[in-house]
Structures are given as C-alpha cells and as structure tokens.
C-alpha cells in the first residue's frame, strides 16, 4: 500500500522539518502455527490484518524520519533494510507474526522538490563531465609535450650522428692523405736509392715528375735565363 510520511530534516532546508513523501511498498508476514495463533485471534479477531497494516505504517513513518530526503536517492538499500528490521521487531512484539519480506516499490516527492533534486543532479553531472574533459585535455597536452620532446631528441640525435659521421669521414680522408704522402715519399726514396741519385738529382727528378703531371707548351726547363717559345 501507499504511506505518506515525512523525511528527516533537509540539509538544504533545515527549517522545513523534512519533506512529505509517498512510499509504495509490499510487505509479507507469516502467522504463527502454534498456540500463539489463538492469541492473535483473541487480541485482534478477524481484523488482525488491518491491525498489522497500521503497526507497519506507523513503524515505517518513524523510520522515514531518520533519513534525509537525499538519502532516499543515495541510500535506498540501507533505507529498505532499516524499515524491514523495524517492522520485523514491531510486528513480532505487537502482533506475534514474523515479517519475511519488505520491498519498496516507489518513492514519490512533491514535484517541485523532485525538480530541484533533478537540477542538482544535472549540475553535479555537468561538473563531472567538465572535470573529465579537463583531465582528457591535460592528457592530450602532456602527449603533445612528450611528442615535441621526442621529436627534439630525435633531431639532436640525428645532428650528432651527422656530425660524428662528418668527423669520421674527415679523419678517414686525412689518414688516406697521410698514407698517400708516405707512400710517395717511400717510392721516391726507393727510386733515389736504386739509381743512386744525389740530393740535387732527387730534387730535379721531383721537379720533372711534377712538370710531367702538369704539362704546358710554355715551359722551359734547365736554363738559367729561361725564355718562352711561341
């Protein structure tokens, strides 16, 4: 059936004394199968069910006043359990019956109050969505920073690799030049030693070798007063 209690004090409206609500629930109980059954009929007669309903309504109304309006949304399981325990105790003591089940079917608040709660919930959800969006944006920004850092690191590594390759290439060229010059010197020394050249003859040999490498039709060799031929 439907019960019309009030909730406990509303934290948003402390002077309201709670909010009026409508609770629709189902209740199951078991009559005793002992001599207590006779006591039930002796005490309540054929109207025992109406008596149990009244006891249950009063008990549930008392329990409802211990919960704030917001609890009816956020603590529904706790609310249902508290009502079940309270009704079990009261009907056992006052009616000698065992309550086996209590189920809340529906809870209705005044439309104005439900609209207010709905708006509050929408604001909370909107705040949560904005916070989530901010976290996503922060993650994306961090990703961009990491990407830029990685690209900068790659650029530095490539630059260092090119620099190292250039240094190695220059060193190789220098080493090759040194080896070439050393080979030329060794070859000249071998020729001079084989032909038993004097120092002046070696110089003349090198001069002739150089000239043969760069031929010209305007070259005079071995004259103290050189002249050019036409």
From TrEMBL:
Residue intervals of the Band domain: 16-134
Annotated InterPro entries: Band_7, Band_7/SPFH_dom_sf
Superkingdom classification of source: Eukaryota
Protein name per its UniProtKB record: Band 7 domain-containing protein
